[in-house]
Specification:
Two copies of one chain form a homodimer.
Chain A (H helix, E strand, L loop, with lengths): L12 E6 L13 E16 L7 H12 L2 E10 L5 H19 L6 E8 L6 H7 L10 H7 L8 E9 L2 E10 L12 E6 L5 H13 L5 E2 L9 E6 L12 H21 L7 E9 L2 H13 L1 H8 L5 H10 L10 E4 L2 E5 L2 E2 L4 H7 L4 E7 L5 E8 L3 H9 L3
Parallel strand pairs in A: 3-4, 7-9, 8-15, 10-14
Antiparallel strand pairs in A: 1-2, 2-3, 2-9, 5-6, 6-7, 10-15, 11-12, 11-14, 12-13
């Protein structure tokens, strides 16, 4: 995790946050945040694929489709989801209040919310709190903390990439610890850049980065109603992202999103271990991804990893039910580089070597399906008793 | 749960079990079991849909396809899965030894195994133990305990149904507590009847019963490599299952399988609560089933139920990611008959009433997707810290 500035690393952005009392029972905690762009920014967004979609996503999708954005307003503590017509009205009112605070038009503001579902948004408190926020370049830090819910730490990442001989910056801040699963993993992610992008390019770059990062992680297999990833491009670097500049830009954007995504998995509710699943030998890329994702979401794999158990049988069984084609007589599994199942038969391994694998920061699991050439990666975390405690005690 | 005789309730069957020492570190525990039919029986089978399929399933599928069965041999403690060519050899040798013990041909014996994956079967111990088993009508009890792994109690069910003025009996014994999920839930189930069925009818009746029972339950979303459901029909009642007799027979068979399936969920690893999800208002039956199953497997729903939290937001979000079409402005959720979300908006409810709901033996969850007329049911259990302990400590 970088120490960096996240959303204010790129030129042209400021941020800030305040405590509005949305998080009930915790009046002093930061829970409303603003990200402000000096000038209108080209924007792109990716949202949850859950059919139950929260009001702020509906409003933000509309605003992004309309044109450039000037600001993003976020609250934690209340998701404004499953709140009916009132919810959409509240999300729009929140955008309007933020627009007034920063001197923009309502449709130039994106809205994001995260927290409990089905409780009306405490709109008044949010509206009253917004004028108190003084966005600055240093404001990335309170911003990163204000958007947290069950997260135990902020997620911040940035990259500088040289394009056409000049530095272009990309930075992001994300939150998410539960309800995290592929299909736009359950999270909020805000990424800014000073590169110059057109709308179609911004959307294409974000989609590519999201698919290889946020859509390849899983904490608990549950997709949220509020997932939002936003990209704002200020153009302040003067560097256009096209031609030769496209690939290095998208790579850097993917790196930023990937670092944020892995930070989310590492901070998964109750997580004590992160694992990376690398599938090869699949018939198709879709098969590879299906197998990788199914392994990262298997409760039996997750508990085995929690117990530091090289249980390749559960890994193979998860691949076997994923729908991906596999040949069990040619399949292989390695855990942390140690052969545990090789071309259809269990291997013998050194118990000490395997023990050491489970002490690594990230446990690498390689699975060869034995039928083709396609590959995919996915990231998951272990399932602990603490996960159960967190989610059994969480109040609706 | 009935007190009954399970697999020896129908006329023409005996059973027994012994302790062969397959379950390591627990030499005194029953772990090899025999079910014997007086005469060759028409047989039908359903197996795991996992592509990683264990050797005993491969052998049993072949034997069922060949013709009538005389016996079933089962061991617990070792799944004989992912054991390569040796595994298939061992499964066949186990069938041959059982055939010799009961005076049948090898291809008249079905084999089933359950336990750890990837360890060669201790074939010698199993073979040596078989002559010690003396199958009797009372042997259903040791049989029911010998096939258990992490199960805490035997699962036994039976029904008598009058067809054409005469009693026909159906009884079954099952095991399963983890790796339980639709697509032939992870389990072994042995059902016998004294009805007279032809092979096609037996297969059709079993498929119908399995789809509405074992394929509609989930403990942890993980499908096993060894799932097997077997139906043996002795014909000893003299009553043929055709014409008017078909439907009452299949209903009774479904009842037996359903009772066994719900007993498996209730005994799910670490389970303290069972819930039944009834989806209505779906566009198609497949949509209804997808929504019901996704809700029963959601870790967030399962932990909410563990915490006695009427968290309809998680229920709705699980339906929303299931792929089933839903209209969130017309959707409704009831928990134990209490309206918690009604036609797109949260309801207000009596906290005492909801608390009482969570004290019931089975918690009923009704979800209306608000788009059509199709319905489906599924059963699940809560996710507890105990589940994590059981599965993190289980040894490969």
């Amino acid at each position: 995790m970088s120490a960096g500035r996240g959303v204010t690393f790129a030129r042209g952005f400021t941020a800030g946050a305040t405590a509005a009392g949305v998080k009930h029972g915790d009046a002093g905690r930061l829970d409303v945040a603003l990200l402000v762009a000096e000038r209108p920014c080209v924007a792109a967004a990716a949202f949850t694929r859950n059919q139950v979609i929260a009001a702020p996503c509906v409003v933000t999708r509309r605003h992004v489709a309309r044109g450039p954005l000037r600001a993003v307003v976020v609250n934690s503590g209340n998701a404004n989801a499953c709140t009916g017509e009132q919810g959409e009205h509240d999300a729009l009112a929140m955008a309007a209040a933020a627009a007034q605070a920063v001197g923009a038009r309502t449709e130039e503001v994106a809205v994001a919310s995260t927290g409990v579902i089905g409780i009306p948004l405490p709109l008044d408190r949010i509206v009253r709190s917004l004028p108190r926020i003084r966005p600055t370049v240093e404001g990335w830090d309170p911003f990163s903390r204000a958007i947290m819910t069950t997260d135990t730490r902020p997620k911040v990442a940035e990259r500088e990439v040289w394009l056409r001989g000049a530095p272009v910056r990309i930075g992001g801040i994300a939150k998410g610890a539960g309800m995290i699963h592929p299909d736009m993993a359950t999270l909020l992610a805000f990424v800014t850049t000073d590169a110059r992008l057109d709308t179609a390019g911004a959307q294409r770059a974000l989609r590519s980065a999201v698919d290889a990062s946020f859509n390849a992680i899983s904490v608990d297999g549950d997709t949220s109603t509020n997932d939002t990833a936003l990209l704002l491009a200020s153009g302040a670097s003067g560097i256009a992202v096209d031609g030769d500049a496209w690939e290095p830009f998208v790579d850097a954007l993917t790196d930023v999103c990937g670092e944020l995504a892995r930070a989310i998995v590492a901070d998964g509710e109750g997580a004590t271990k992160v694992f990376e699943v690398r599938v090869q030998g699949a018939a198709t890329a879709a098969d590879a991804l299906a197998a990788a994702r199914t392994i990262t979401t298997s409760n039996l794999v997750k508990t085995a990893i929690h117990g530091a158990d090289p249980n390749w049988g559960r890994i193979l069984a998860a691949a076997g039910r994923s729908g991906a084609r596999l040949d069990q007589r040619r399949a292989s599994v390695r855990i942390g580089g140690v052969d545990v199942f090789s071309r259809g038969s269990p291997s013998t391994w050194d118990a000490n070597e395997v023990r050491a694998v489970f002490e690594r920061a990230t446990i690498e699991i390689d699975v060869d399906l034995g039928v083709g050439d396609a590959t995919a990666k996915a990231w998951g975390c272990d399932l602990s008793a603490e996960y159960v405690h967190i989610n059994a005690d969480y109040t609706t």
